[in-house]
Amino acid sequence: MKLAALILSTALIPSIAFASSTNCESEKYHQYIDASLNWYESLVELAVEKDPSLSDVGQWFLEGRKHHFELNRDAFDWYLANDKDKLSLSLPVESWLNLTQQDVKALSAEQNSKLGKAAKLAFDDRQSNPHPQNYALRSAFAELLTHPGNIEKPLNAYNEKMAVIADMKCK
User: May I ask which residue range the UniProt record assigns to the signal sequence (predicted)?
Assistant: First the structure.
């Protein structure tokens, strides 16, 4: 009986280690997504603070970013569980997943799941006409980014979070 328990325990170790690594990689990627979304929210907030007429376009922009990043979150977890070869886990976390327009289109058509719905939202965003004030918002972003003092606090918060994420080691 003890031998059977020992054999079973030994057989389970690789799957436990794999699950632990998979959970760590998923958590690390999710933290990257959250940090990115927080950065964009801060950037929009600063742009709208400087020019309140950009509020509507800012919300439109954030919706598109959320759709994009939530698709990446769902797709990453799906590929991590089903097709790890599609991931580049040896690169920095922001490069682990690279979805092409064809990938997003295929996921939106082939997946009848949360992932498929997220892909459909992101694909539709990419196919839609830009907001009439899109250029004004992009110009406001460019103006903010050319004056580092204007974005120091959110940029430092993003960089600090990314440094913590980069230091996470998954085995």
Answer: 1-19
